[in-house]
Amino acid sequence: MSEADQNILSMEGISKVFPGVKALDDVSLSLKKGEILCLVGENGAGKSTLMKILTGVDKPDSGRIIFDGKEIQAKSPQHAQSLGISTVYQEINLCSNLTVAENILLGREPQKMRRIDWVKMNALASDTLKRLLGVDIDVTKSLESYTVAIQQMVAIARALYVESAKILILDEPTSSLDVHETAQLFKVMRKLKSEGVGIIFITHFIGQIYEISDRIIVLRNGKLVGTYETASINRVGLISKMIGRSLAEFDEMTKIKLESSKHIKSEALLQAKGFGLTGAIQPFDLDLHAGEVVGLAGLLGSGRTETANILFGSDKADTGSITMSGSVVQDYSPLSSIKRGVALCPEDRKAAGIVDDLSVRENIILAIQASKGWFKYLSLSEQYEIAEKYIKLLNIATPSADQPIKNLSGGNQQKVILARWLAINPQILILDEPTRGIDVGTKAEIQKLVLSFAEDGKSCVFISSELEEVLRTSHRIVVLREREKVAEFAGEVDENTIIHAIAGSEA
């Protein structure tokens, strides 16, 4: 039998453009019957878009899909499911107010006398959970009464209940599962594999990739990096493929960083001792010194963003403590953090950063206005003075301060968010993926800005999926892996050392 005959799925030359973003650029993928294919890549790599095209959520701009020997284009997830393509989404897509049984058999309820046979439905749901996943719970209780982990298992059970499924897509299915639950899921996946079901497994846990997958496909920035037999590529090699390299080198950055390191003080602006949050980040210590840039390195899901959110007060640590100015922080909240001089530039500038309907000026003054309180409203002249200052300082390309921010490029929108936080004159600036999706020139400008910020006696936490960028910008690097601090490096350190730390001892 030829390889083509063995394929249950072929996606050929798939491209997709959204306004301002080329999400996929000529990506191809094949899946064999009875194969577990791991789809990996950092945020923005194109994994979700590719799966949305396969399941009918989005339509490709070009390319074709061959499923079970026929060319298809799913019109919706329901249509895809009827064809034999079942999906468990990263975000639990269930009805929390319905029972567990209702969620598992929604749209497929057994009938008796033209009415739902509740006894049979509850029995089928209970059997599915026990037989496939080893979960024994009361299926007549509402879904919302159970933990997120149980809800995830219910979502998996719903997908697996489709007896006709030929392909199963699992998008980060273990993110909320413990070791036992993950092991049970992997047992089910191996059983389905033996029955000829093709499985596409999306995960950020490197160890799980090597435990369960046959092949690995790597995407980066919407492009196919390559497809590899799992046994043929080690962890270090895989992570190198996922992270990639910058488009250009900025030799002067090394000089700037070395010069700025002279300004680091022994004084700690913030001391975190044994701080952590269950399910988000394992407890660890972190000191932020005046004049220092601390980089957080690690793959997607390693705990970088979770650490940033705790430091800013968006989430509250449930272990350890954070001390600033000699006092233990008690009032966790973004507003309290702003008043203490801590600022966060969030990872998702669209969802948590810019306010589309407001002007550049209005976006810039948001944080400083919030810190003053809305009863101490900044006058228009003060607003324009602040906006013009930072438009000039950051070289923001805009016709005027009154230009709607939605009309600016992604790079200039990012500069506006930076301006917003610089305007409050913070002592600590947390930057979560500040250069994602922007051009090389703007990246260099932002990196230099970060170092100049540190030179002024401030501290910066710098998070980036681009390892080279972390190395260029940071005086000290903390490495996170699977929500745990695993290493810390001060001074000059080479890329391979960091990659090995990210990969783990098995590399």
Strand content: 25-35%
Q: Look at the structure and name the CATH superfamily of the largest domain.
A: P-loop containing nucleotide triphosphate hydrolases
Helix content estimate: 25-40%
Distance between the termini: 35 Å
Order of neighbouring strands in the sheet with most strands: 6-9-10-3-11-12
Please give a handful of descriptors for the protein shown.
507 residues; alpha/beta; Rossmann fold; 6-stranded mixed beta sheet; 37% helix
Give an overview of the whole structure:
With 507 residues, the chain is α/β, with parallel strands linked by helices. It has three domains: 241 residues, P-loop containing nucleotide triphosphate hydrolases (Rossmann fold); 142 residues, Rossmann fold (3-Layer(aba) Sandwich), CATH 3.40.50; 84 residues, Rossmann fold, CATH 3.40.50.300. The protein contains 20 helices and 22 strands. The strands form five sheets. A six-stranded mixed beta sheet has the order 6-9-10-3-11-12, with helices on both faces. Strands 18-19-20-15-21-22 form a six-stranded mixed beta sheet, with helices on both faces. A four-stranded antiparallel beta sheet has the order 2-1-4-5.
Short description:
This protein has 507 residues and is α/β, with parallel strands linked by helices. It is built from 20 helices and 22 strands. The model is unreliable at 246-250 (pLDDT under 50).
Topology:
Elements: H1 3-6, E1 7-18, E2 21-32, E3 36-40, H2 47-54, E4 62-67, E5 70-72, H3 77-83, E6 85-88, H4 100-104, E7 111-112, E8 115-116, H5 118-133, H6 148-160, E9 167-171, H7 179-194, E10 198-202, H8 206-212, E11 215-220, E12 223-229, H9 235-243, H10 251-260, E13 268-277, E14 281-289, E15 292-297, H11 304-312, E16 319-324, E17 327-328, H12 334-340, E18 342-345, H13 349-352, H14 360-364, H15 366-372, H16 380-393, H17 410-422, E19 428-432, H18 440-455, E20 459-463, H19 467-473, E21 476-480, E22 485-490, H20 495-503
Parallel strand pairs: 3-10, 3-11, 6-9, 9-10, 15-20, 15-21, 18-19, 19-20
Antiparallel strand pairs: 1-2, 1-4, 4-5, 7-8, 11-12, 13-14, 13-16, 16-17, 21-22
